[in-house]
Design a protein that fits this description.
The complex is a heterodimer of chains A (115) and B (113). Chain A has 115 residues and is mainly β. In chain B, the strands form 2 sheets. In chain B, strands 2, 4, 5, 9, 10 and 11 form a 6-stranded mixed β-sheet that branches. By secondary structure, chain B is an all-beta fold. Chain B starts with a strand and ends with a strand. In chain B, 0% of the residues lie in helices and 58% in strands. Classes of the chains: A mainly beta (115), B mainly beta (113). Chains A and B meet through β5, β9 and β10 of A and β4, β5 and β9 of B.
Chain lengths: 115, 113
């Protein structure tokens, strides 16, 4: 009955490699997000999609490319991984994306370690 | 853009005592203020939220207050228990942000027996 699930939980890889993280939500929400949490636990939004359409794209290197095949899935592909990409990546979803404010439901994160 | 400051960064209390975490925000157009609890190895979980048209909200041992004039909001946990130990984040959403939340830097709460 997991609401927001992401895989893998841990990802260890070498510099220069390409990797993907998958996310799925079964809450029927329209909007999905990727957040990055650094070693100091600071949470920062990377992207958000509403019904498969990109609506928020923060200042993220274009090595990061989100893909939303349908509104229940939002995957994150990272090319040419760098040491600084090491972090915990959280997927989240919310009912909508409007200005009214909608609670986020987070997955349990993917800890990415680049060596 | 929006800036959210959170204090303290660490907080240690005795079981049964109250804990207070404070946040200030920069954008006066902010209209939504959630609080999240993050346990080790898990994602942040919403524990309470408040909107700009409300000054206070309570849910059992947890309460949040909002002072729009001063642009600050606080989380109050009463009768703390060991299971309250976690990292707590405040966040703010400003109008026009498309549900883009800006998070505070987190408070590590430790409830000691």
């Amino acid at each position: 009955d997991t609401a927001v699930s992401q895989t893998p939980k841990y990802l260890v890889t070498q510099m220069g490699n390409d990797k993907s993280i998958k996310c799925e939500q079964n809450l029927g929400h329209d909007t999905m997000y990727w957040y990055k949490q650094d070693s100091k636990k600071f949470l920062k939004i990377m992207f958000s999609y509403n019904n498969k359409e990109l609506i928020i794209n923060e200042t993220v290197p274009n090595r990061f490319s989100p893909k939303s095949p349908d509104k229940a899935h939002l995957n994150l592909h990272i090319n040419s991984l760098e040491l600084g990409d090491s972090a915990v990546y959280f997927c989240a979803s919310s009912q909508d994306s409007g200005d009214r404010g909608s609670p986020l439901h987070f997955g349990n994160g993917t800890r990415l370690t680049v060596t | 853009g929006e800036n959210v400051e959170q204090h303290p960064s660490t907080l240690s209390v005795q079981e049964g005592d109250s804990a207070v975490i404070k946040c200030t925000y920069s954008d006066s157009a902010s209209n939504y203020f959630p609080w999240y609890k993050q346990e080790l190895g898990k994602g942040p979980q919403l524990i309470i939220d408040i909107r700009s048209n409300v000054g206070e909200k309570k849910d059992q041992r947890i309460a949040v207050t909002l002072n729009k004039t001063a642009k600050h909001f606080s989380l109050h946990i009463t009768e703390t228990q060991p299971e309250d130990s976690a990292v707590y984040f405040c966040a703010a959403q400003f109008t026009g942000g498309g549900n883009k939340l800006t998070f505070g830097t987190g408070t590590q709460l430790k409830v000691e027996l």
